Automatic annotation (TrEMBL):
Belongs to the glycosyl hydrolase 32 family. GO terms for biological process: carbohydrate metabolic process. It comes from Gossypium raimondii (Peruvian cotton). Gene3D superfamilies: Exo-inulinase, domain 1, Glycosyl hydrolase domain, family 43. The keyword Amino-acid biosynthesis does not apply. PROSITE patterns: GLYCOSYL_HYDROL_F32. SMART domains: Glyco_32. This is Glycosyl hydrolase family 32 N-terminal domain-containing protein. Keywords: Glycosidase, Hydrolase.
Length: 530
């Protein structure tokens, strides 16, 4: 893998002065068990990733209950051990000591009991008193109802937690009192209130509206449903994979899920409409009242973890390094036929740390520091010039695995295009103003996985617009030319970035992770030059 850093200054003459250096990185390694369910695929797999997590073969979706236990990181995930399509869902289990290199263990939970005979679906882990980890998960029972179940480690002295036992009390929570049995799933990590009771949220939909149902328990076995959900919305449908956790208002560390610290904000995340949306608010533990700052999709608000391909995420508190870490599922863009042919589908995002921004209005994320520790060899380039309307190829490297950092400093915005008030959908705006469309300030950015003739490329770029009171920065990821094949989805993603370009650099970090793909990284700028 290659590390690339570019510092770009844009002068009035639209000349980019570039200084950058490259670092070759070691690959993330997965050590796989060689039983029938985990045998590796042939080595000729150029589109498998180099340091994202993915199993050796078959289907994977949601991350489940990641945790840190006795010096070991655990990742459970939804997995079909028999095919590269969804079905026969189990809880697969892998462990790591650095969140980069992984060892695949035996499957932790498989369907087979009346309460989960049709699938062991998503859930979470929670630490009970005495640092005892347990799993809450959704099972699809004999009637295809969704119920909530408990599993415990067979041997707590085993730091790898290789064996899990389902509770004889299952199911713990069932869809009663009018709850839709097909929309009742994905329990969160539980937290303990000042009264000693445990609390957990379960995703639900009622009359077409998303809800997070609240349950309480004294012993983690017998649960009672609160009369009211902790939160609901008339603007959304089913809430999948909810998450509920505190973030520090002015700290640099993560916060444990059951923390009662007054200097925190609470995050409620819900997965719907193929994206992970979140709201910030104030949670009162005594009354279980959650008052949001701005509700889901209210008054133009659209806070998301990620505006690209990222879904069904889960966070956990890393007690070893006092940080909160975010995982998310990335769905394959290939069609089902291609997935079956190549023998695998799905991967996990690069894990990210997550904190509250200085303004307190949104969350900020950054790839784990462990990724940077993989860097090996440094190569540097300095004082390269790139004029508007041209491109610069980073030559002499194989850029199939790269860690790219780019910073843009613009000296003037007077000629920036006026922002139309109707441009409220960044994804649509990126689709209309692709990387080939010139404007006064933009596009500028990078082309990754670019073929020699540029027939295949993925453009990641910015534009700056001028409004009445400030400047608006648009970021786009254009996959419309990522492949010449007809089958894959080629989505264009976009987001407005909360940044003041007058006083801050526009920075981008891109992690490119294919195993063997002989392509280039290219910086470009296309402006309308007077």
């Amino acid at each position: 893998m290659t590390y690339l850093k570019l510092e770009v200054t844009m002068e009035k003459s639209v000349v980019l002065v570039i200084g950058f250096w490259l670092l070759l990185l070691g690959n993330g390694v997965q050590s796989h068990r060689q039983d029938k369910k985990h045998q590796s695929l042939p080595r000729d797999q150029p589109y498998r990733t180099g340091y994202h997590f993915q199993p050796p073969k078959n289907w994977m979706n949601d991350p489940n209950g990641p945790m840190y236990y006795k010096g070991v990181y655990h990742l459970f995930y939804q997995y079909n051990p028999y095919a590269a399509v969804w079905g026969n869902i189990t809880w697969a289990h892998s462990i790591s000591y650095d969140l980069v290199n992984w060892i695949n263990l035996d499957i932790a939970l498989s369907p087979g009991d009346p309460f989960d005979i049709n699938g062991c679906w998503s859930g979470s882990t929670t630490f009970l008193s005495g640092e005892k980890p347990v799993i809450l998960y959704t099972g699809s029972d004999t009637m295809n109802r969704q119920v909530q179940n408990l599993a415990e480690p067979k041997n707590l002295s085993d730091p790898l937690l290789r064996e899990w036992v389902k509770s004889s009390h299952n199911p713990l929570m069932s869809p009663v009192d009018g709850i839709d049995p097909k929309n009742f799933r994905d329990p969160t990590t539980a937290w303990q209130g000042p009264d000693g009771l445990w609390r957990v949220l379960v995703g639900n939909e009622m009359d077409g509206h998303g809800r997070a149902l609240l349950y309480r328990s004294q012993d983690f076995i017998t649960w009672s449903q609160s009369k009211e959900p902790i939160h609901s919305s008339t603007r959304t449908g089913m809430w999948e994979c909810p998450d509920f956790y505190p973030v520090s208002i002015d700290g640099k560390n993560g916060v444990e899920t059951s923390s009662l610290d007054k200097f925190t904000k609470q995050v409620l995340k819900a997965s719907f409409d193929n994206s992970d949306h979140y709201v910030l608010g104030n949670y009162t533990a005594v009354t279980d009242n959650f008052l949001v700052d701005t509700d889901f999709l209210d008054n133009g608000s659209d806070l998301r973890y990620d505006y690209g391909n990222f879904y069904a995420s889960k966070t956990f508190f890393d007690s070893g390094k006092k940080r909160r870490i975010l995982w998310g599922w990335i769905l394959e863009s290939d069609n089902t036929t291609d997935d079956v042919k190549k023998g695998w589908s799905g991967l996990q995002s690069i894990p990210r740390t997550i904190l509250l921004s200085k303004t307190g209005k949104q969350l900020i994320q950054w790839p784990l520091e462990e990724i940077e520790k993989q860097r090996i060899i440094k190569v540097s380039f300095e004082n390269k010039e790139l004029k508007g309307g041209s491109v610069l190829e980073v030559s002499g490297i194989t850029a199939s695995q790269a860690d790219v950092e780019v910073s843009f400093s613009l000296s003037s915005f007077k000629e920036a295009e006026l922002m139309d008030p109707s441009w409220v959908d960044p994804k649509l705006l990126c689709s209309q103003k692709t990387a080939s469309v010139r404007s006064n300030v933009g596009p500028f950015g990078i082309l990754v996985l670019a073929s020699k003739d540029l027939t295949e490329q993925t453009a990641i770029f910015f534009r700056v617009f001028r409004s009445k009171d400030n400047y608006v920065v648009l970021m786009c990821s254009d996959q419309s030319r990522s492949s010449v094949e007809e089958g894959p989805q080629k989505t264009i993603y976009g987001a407005f970035i909360d940044i003041d370009p007058l006083n801050e650099k526009i920075s981008l970090r891109s992690l490119v992770c294919y195993i063997c793909f002989n392509t280039s990284i290219i910086t470009f700028a296309k402006f309308s030059i007077d």
